[in-house]
Design goal:
elongated; single chain
Length: 85
């Protein structure tokens, strides 16, 4: 099996790789091998795998967020018959 060295990684990219590896419970080396395989079309990217990458943009709520939303928006589900006359 071959080994490569990647020169010139900036701190942001190196940090992002390390963080992602920790989040996914794998080593940085394993993560980089998997990402390279997926990028080169040698390994299919599993469906739903990137969901966590977009969590901060896609409105993923905690259980507390959901309860608070339901409490604050409860009035929107009430119909006042007087409004329909």
């Amino acid at each position: 099996m071959k080994a490569i060295t990647i020169h010139g990684l900036d701190d942001v990219l190196a940090g992002t790789l390390k963080k992602r590896a920790l989040e996914q419970g794998e080593s940085v080396n394993s993560l980089v091998r998997r990402l390279l395989g997926e990028a080169m079309g040698m390994k299919p990217r599993p469906k739903g795998r990137n969901r966590s990458e977009f969590a901060s943009f896609s409105g993923v709520w905690t259980e507390q967020d959901r309860r608070e939303f339901q409490e604050r928006s409860a009035d929107f589900s009430r119909v006042n018959p007087e409004d329909w006359k």
